[in-house]
Design goal:
It contains 2 helices and 6 strands. By secondary structure, it is of the alpha+beta class. It has a domain of about 90 residues: Nucleic acid-binding proteins (OB fold (Dihydrolipoamide Acetyltransferase, E2P)), CATH 2.40.50.140. Strands 1, 2, 3, 4, 5 and 6 form a 6-stranded antiparallel sheet that branches.
């Protein structure tokens, strides 16, 4: 079963490494990820296995990620069951919100410049008078009440 979990990394364990029974080198690290913007945020401990994934993912405490997780259940020698959450892919938020914020700042500075130019040129103090309905402007389809 595969799930995704988007959240903030709030803790990272030490990288563990060793040699398996068949002589293969292994390494892993655990991370605690916390759900965002929730009154009671869910937290999960996820594991990343393999030095290649550890280097590729380069997960840091404090960053927001979307972790793609494979859920596994294992039975210990004493018969108890436990879960393992293996992270096999990490995605980071796109730069789009930051780009939109920067575009908003550019627009705001342009509006400010236009306002300053208008102030330097002197804004028109009195708006133009609008013609009264009726009287001179008798092109209304109904009689004007004066």
């Amino acid at each position: 079963m595969n799930v995704t979990f988007t959240g903030k990394i709030i803790a990272a364990g030490q990288v563990q490494s060793g040699t398996s029974q068949n002589g293969t080198q292994w390494s892993s690290c655990e991370y605690v990820i916390e759900e965002l913007n929730q009154q009671y945020p869910a937290r999960a401990v996820i594991q990343v296995y393999g030095s290649d994934k550890l280097q590729l993912f380069n997960i840091q405490v404090g960053e927001i990620i979307t972790a793609h997780i494979g859920l596994k259940a294992h039975q210990s020698k004493d018969g108890r069951w436990f879960n393992q959450l293996d992270c096999w892919k990490v995605q980071r938020p796109t730069a789009q919100p930051q780009q939109m914020q920067q575009q908003g700042q550019v627009y705001a500075s342009q509006v400010g410049q236009n306002y300053q130019q208008g102030a330097q040129q002197g804004f028109q103090q009195n708006p133009p008078q609008q013609a009264q309905y009726g009287g001179q402007q008798g092109n209304l389809p109904f009689p004007a009440n004066n």
